[in-house]
Amino acid sequence: LTSGVTVLDSRIFVHYYHNTPDGRIMLGKGGNTFAYGGRMLPVFDQPSPYAGLLQNSLADFFPAFADVKVEATWNGPSDRSVTGLPFFGQMSASGNVFYGFGYSGSGVGPCHMGGQILASMVQGLDNPWTRSPLVNGPLGFFPPEPIRYLGS
What is the mean pLDDT of residues 52-58? Predict the structure, then answer.
């Protein structure tokens, strides 16, 4: 892969990959572990439950790497948004806490955009990034537990 290239797909829960500055490949699979009540579970600090799938996918996508062992995997909670799109905002008009949430398992693609939005917000700029419709905070809320968890 050429330096700086990210390959992504607009479908939900697909594979994604990106080259690292040291020439390796970061390969991932959309879909995360959901926890009842938004709890932080011990599984979030363990290797990915998709480790075997990722090893097989590496061989499928890059046959020359079929015998290359996956160096590390990780898992984490999902920050799914109601719209499936990320959203950004500021905790209060006079505060210095800015946020970006709701990448919905698709952070590799939109993280550059999110960085531009947050950097512009922190600098107090009025530009296309800060005027984005994504700078409105959450655009809705999930139903309460247990419906939220069952739906995930």
Answer: 86
The 3-state secondary structure of 30-58 reads CCCECCHHHCCCHHHHCCCCCHHHHHHHH
Query: Environment class of residue 11 by beta-carbon count within 10 Å: exposed (0-12), middle (13-18) or buried (19+)?
Result: exposed
| pLDDT higher than 90, residue 79 | no
Tell me how far apart the alpha carbons of residues 137 and 6 are, in angstroms, rounded to a whole number.
27
- What distance in Å separates the CA atoms of residue 114 and residue 134, rounded to the nearest whole number? 9
Q: Where are the domains of the chain?
A: 6-65, 79-152
Residue type, 52: G
Alpha-carbon torsion 92, 93, 94, 99, what sign? positive
Q: What single string gives the DSSP state of each residue in 60-114?
A: HH-GGGTTPPP------B----SSSS-EEEESSTT---EEEE--TT--TTTHHHH
Which residue did the predictor score with more confidence, 13 or 62? 62
